[in-house]
Amino acid sequence: MDVKPQTTSQVRAALRELAAKRPASVDELAHVQRGSLLLRLHIQSHGLGTEMPEIAWHFLSDADIRYRSPDYGLAQTEGLLSALDLWQQQEER
Length: 93
Prior knowledge:
Helix content: over 70%
Number of strands: 0
Radius of gyration: 13 Å
Shape: globular
């Protein structure tokens, strides 16, 4: 996963890649959490998140909740992917 995207399109790609990850162990969860933190910090420090949907910020912080609750994880992931599609459509107008 690219934790240093330079464009909003690359941010969306990184978030989609992150959404595809389903950690099966605590070690894998820790890896996802580290990647999420690095991505969030990069987005914030480079001003790439000004138009980012609110659910994306929650997604970057909720890996542990998605790991513990697969139903929540599925719902949040579906919501994120829908929001990313809408964000892309709005940007393309």
